[in-house]
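Re: the 380-residue chain
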Amino acid sequence: MCVNRTWKENRTEAVIAAMSLRVGFKVSASGYHYLMLLEGEAQGAMLLREGAKKWDTCAGEALLRAIGGCTTDAVGRKYDYAHNLNGVLNLSGSASSVDANFHRAFTREIRRTLSPLGRYPYDVPDASIRPPLLPPAPRGGWKILTVDVGGCLLAPIEPVAKTYARLAMTRGFEGVTEKSAKTAIRAGFSAPPPASHPNVRYVGDGKSFWRPLVAGAMGVAPDEIEGNAKLEGVLDDLYAHYEDPRSWRVAHGAREAFRALRAHGVKVAVVSNWDTRLPKLLRDCGFDESSLDAVIVSAEVMADKPDRKIFAAALEAVGASLDRDASSAVHVGDSVVNDVEGAVGAGFGGALMFAPEMREGNVYDFTELADEIIESRLES
């Protein structure tokens, strides 16, 4: 354990005694503490008073997060480094660990030990303490997490319009630019589903939806679609591209976060407006039975988000029900309407993924999402 060289209160000693910690480094330098953590020489570090500045902990936190560690204030709350405080002090102290599970136990013990010794740091007005990511958890904590895919769990490495324009060129379609492709794609998604299946965009492998959209992007008139071998060729190329896991960027820390959640008894399911090819793509991207309990796609349920039917199907897939268990489930995604409002309409908690503004209901990343869900279960 790393601590400062000197301290003038009994709180640090009390935590050390409560956790039977061995203090290996007494150095009043945050950078040195982080170095010891990153080199594996120490498991944790703490400063139970104000003192370290934002620039002392920001870079160290980034490095620790890259290896699965944490930095928070003294009692486990995360800092907002974008907040401009006079003097930029971490007013509520700091605690750092190389392992998220240890950090939860570490900060929980700090909270328990500090409680009879005074209100610090809860009595310190610190505007840089970040709000919770999720709505208030129900009694017993969150038990089910459902996650969107496109723009959330997976994102195309190459911009979609660029892919369309590139593949159009290889198939001999002239005049297809990124701008024209983007316009056609937007038009395709703006069109309502056909009367034969008004509640869902994709059916089966989704080609009934994608074929006219791709035709529009390639400049093929509607009456020229049927039997158009050239169009089928570029459609096949696009399908091959997006079925290749190398075409997708997986959200940082998602696989590890899902495994951690499941190890703590949380059910994890994907809920996506997608065609029937999604389960294989997710498996190819590293999401197998160790990280997911279920994959629910609109093409199988025959309902797109925000329809509550697809959320009900997700609960059923993990052995739960909408009437009994919706309030213990939380859904995250990148669409306010489809994901957040859809989830809330089904009785779930809802949050926006990768939202830039730090406020309740905006999730920064999957690692922090898992931390908050696990903490909700441990604190209940």
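The first helix runs from residue 11 to 18.
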